[in-house]
Design brief:
6-stranded mixed β-sheet; 13 helices; Rossmann fold; single chain; alpha/beta; 10 strands
Length: 288
């Protein structure tokens, strides 16, 4: 039998090997430290590259010198459904309104396809493909459903018939009751009209401010189903919701706002299962 002497292997006391091992430990420790102390602003800017819409470091408020948003970041990529949750007064609705030009941004920037749209008027944003549905007073009660949708297409009235057909494909009831006055509709039906009107200009991104607020559980579920259907047509949706648990079930990614800042971000599933998010923001509702 031929026996070949094994090559010398570095032993535990080999000075050169020990030096290499210690160097690798130092590098790994440094990388770990950097990952734990990474700058959130830099992380956001890196992840937001190529986003359809993004908000970078927004400080904004309703009165001079009083900010509701204190450095909030957000982005949504083409076709994403993004949710914003958090306690009352956290700045959720203010963030949407700042994106849509309804609240003045004092510091920071809002970008749409890398174009700076910070503090543009709402009508200018609609032309650029941004739709917004406010939480309240979101229909014209004295007008019919059809007339409400006509108001949605006021910047391009010639396209009304074609776009009306697309909207009633999503919301068949609106077509069946097109001559009924919006003021006689239920809360859930009004939300459908409001969303349908915002879709009349074929937005690339739709901002929804608490669409399930004040609705019964059954109607809330219907609203969430409709939101998902809108998103499946290719419209990027950013939704603010008080029904945090249900919101996190349907979104691709979510943001938890607290005191005008991002407290947590992640996929909807990750946030819904995060012990800290459950403890601080979801409570027993998330465990139901």
């Amino acid at each position: 039998m031929n026996y070949t002497e094994p090559a010398d292997l570095p032993g535990p006391n080999d000075p050169d090997d020990a030096h290499v091992f210690e160097t690798e430990l130092d590098v790994n420790a440094e990388q770990l430290t950097q990952s734990h102390h990474a700058d959130p602003e830099q992380i956001h800017k890196s992840e937001a590259l190529g986003a359809l819409v993004r908000a970078d470091g927004l400080y904004a408020g309703y009165f001079p010198g009083v900010n509701i948003l204190n450095g909030s970041d957000l982005y949504a990529k083409e076709g994403e459904l993004v949710g914003i949750i958090g306690p009352n007064g956290a700045g959720k609705s203010t963030l949407l309104k700042a994106i849509f030009g309804l609240v003045h941004v004092n510091t920071g920037a809002v970008l749409l396809r890398d174009e700076d749209i910070t503090n543009l008027r709402a009508d200018q944003l609609v032309r650029r493909g941004v739709g917004f549905v406010p939480q309240t007073n979101n229909v014209f009660p004295s007008l019919t459903i059809e007339e409400n949708l006509e108001m949605g297409a006021y910047q391009d009235p010639k396209s009304f018939s074609q776009r009306f057909e697309k909207v009633v494909e999503l919301f068949p009831t609106l077509g069946e009751r097109r001559k009924q006055r919006a003021g006689s509709l239920s809360g859930g039906e009004r939300q459908m009209v409001a969303m349908g009107r915002a879709l009349m200009m074929e937005p690339s991104v739709l901002l929804l401010d608490e669409p399930s607020a004040g609705l019964s559980p059954a109607l809330q579920d219907e609203v969430f189903v409709r939101v998902r259907e809108i998103n499946k047509t290719g419209v990027t949706v950013i939704i603010v919701e008080q029904n945090a648990r249900r919101c996190l079930q349907i979104v691709d990614r979510g943001y938890v706002l607290d005191q005008g800042k991002n407290a947590y971000t992640g996929t909807g599933k990750d946030l819904a299962n995060d012990p800290k998010v459950i403890e601080l923001y979801l409570g027993t509702l998330a465990q139901a």
